[in-house]
Structures are given as C-alpha cells and as structure tokens.
Amino acid sequence: MLYTIEKANEFIRGNKETTGKKFYPDYHFAPPIGWTNDPNGVVIFNNELHLFYQHYPYKAEHGAMHWGHAKSKEGLHWQDLPVALAPDQDYDKGGVFSGSAIEKDGKLYVMYTGHLPDETDETKTRQNQNIAISEDGVNFKKYEGNPVLTEDDIPAGTSVVDFRDPKIFEKDGIYYSVIGSKTLDNKGQVILYHSEDLLNWEYVSVIFPYNPYLGTMVECPDLLLFKDKAVFILSAMDYVDEKGKVHSHISWLIEGEMDWENFEFQQTSIKEMDNGMDFYAPQTVKLAEERYLAIAWMQNWQANRPTYELGHNWFGQMTLPRMITAKDGELQQKVPLKIFDLIKI
C-alpha cells in the first residue's frame, strides 16, 4: 500500500464514525480511529498544547506508522487535527517512527525516525533521523536534505538496526538530540548529537552509557535540565531486576548530573516513573524554569486489547498531562486539579 497524508486523512474522515464509544475515554486522549502508541512532539506552539502520536489509522493494530496530531487549550479536551506525517518517502517508507518537536523562529520543527525494515533479514533493518518543518503547526514539509542522521553517524560498537526516538532540546543556543540505542552486544545506551540550525547534526558522545537498568535497548530518552540536577526519563527493554524478573518494557525516572565538558550523564538515583501497569514512552515539554509537562502512552505492549478484539476500531490512549518539578532539591510529579495550570506560562 502506498501511504500518503491525503489518503490517511480521507480514510479518517470517512470512517471515524465507526469507532466504538463504549470504552472510548472522555478525558484521556485517544485516536479518532485506529491505533496509537508513543506520544511524539509534545510541544507548546501558539499558546496551545500540541500532541503528535504514533498512529496507524487503517486498523486498530500496529502498522506502518504515521504521526497523528491533536491540540488542546487546557490538556483535557482535545481537537483532532489532520495527520501530520505519513511514510511516503524512500527513507521512511516502513514507518514514521517516534520523535519530538521544538519551535524555532516561529516555525515548528519535528525530528523523527525513519524505519526501513527488512522482513527477511532483521540485521539489514535500518533506522535514520529526519526533519520536517511547519509554518502553521499543522502542515509539514519534509526537509529536502533528509535523512539528517544515518548509520554512518553512529559510533563504533553500536547497533545500526536500533537507532530511534530523537528528543530535541536547546541549551545555550545549541540544539541537542538524545537518541535511543544499544551496543552490538545488546546493552542499552543513549547517544547525543548537536546542531546549530536543526538541519545539520553531528555526533557528540554516548551521553548515557550502559548500566543494567537500561536493559537491552533504550527507547524514547528525554533529558530534563533543572537548576541543580539533570533528569533522564527513558523506557528500557528487557530490564532484569535483582530477583531475576524480566521487565520487557519499563519507564525510568533517573536523577543525576550532567558533565558538560565530557557530555556524559552521571546517575545518582533511579526509580520507576509510574507504578501502574500501563505506562510507557513518556515525553516532556519544558514550560518554564524547573517545570516540565509529561504525557505517556497509557498502555504497554503485553496488555490485552479489548477494543481491537471487540471490533471497536480503535486502540490506545494517553495519560493525563502531569507536571514534573524540582522543589527544594526534590523531584515531584503531580496532575493538578486544573490541568490548564500545566500549560499556562
């Protein structure tokens, strides 16, 4: 099937009324039809909260990923917007995988992973990083210089098969991107790149080298910078705890410090970000100093999928937005009574 934004939006318009409403959430965001997993591009643009998300509109199951799109004024009620990205280029034809968004000069830039699977030989699967730009926050044009990062930009000893989920942030006028990765012997790690213009990227370091908490692969890494500490939020695959139990997917909140001379994160403490069964791939946007907003996929890969099995034509939803703050040296998470307070700057 040849995927395009136009086909996706036409399908959604013509079929969204078939979505079963029995279990459809009132406040947690869910797709108008079809499948969703990771939140992508959580960003404030034109004083509204924008949420992009992994989306396959044609079935309530994982398929060739698109980027769905919605926005909200207060974080509870969402307005569906047209599909932002489709896997319509040679470099992303297997799926427009997860990524992030940032505003620059009044434009919205997104960085995402292009997926190129090889169904006959997994070792030949490749993933790359790409840029798309929007003047209005709704309609995106993919950068003609894509892909901006390929297997040629991956450090030695690192898998070229699993290289995904770029999260952009800015510090002191330089743009950085942390990307999930693993070593050749299946040990999770996070890689750092930098750019002056969001278009030309260079490798910097393995910012977060392997330790056992990172499992066999890191997905959806996100670096939060507070006044007195740095915090990594990330999701790890196949973490084995001290009792030998394998956690196939787990999301960590890891406190530490950044060594900016060597571009390496130094961990000081770690805890599970959410103890619920259904919480994965959280992503944040910085609202102000010492304050971030986070949204996660309120699901996991091992869960039952009743809305799919019952033919309701949708699957997956997001957590309510939560605020992450650092107060008196202590990291706090909470969902305020007034969600609007999260995005009011």
TrEMBL record:
GO function terms (MF aspect): beta-fructofuranosidase activity
GO BP terms in the entry: carbohydrate metabolic process
Source superkingdom: Bacteria
EC number(s) on file: 3.2.1.26
SUPFAM superfamilies: Arabinanase/levansucrase/invertase
Keywords: Glycosidase, Hydrolase
Gene3D superfamilies noted in UniProt: Glycosyl hydrolase domain, family 43
Keyword NAD found: no
Domain Glycosyl hydrolase family 32 N-terminal: 28-334
Record-stated family: Belongs to the glycosyl hydrolase 32 family.
UniProt protein name: beta-fructofuranosidase
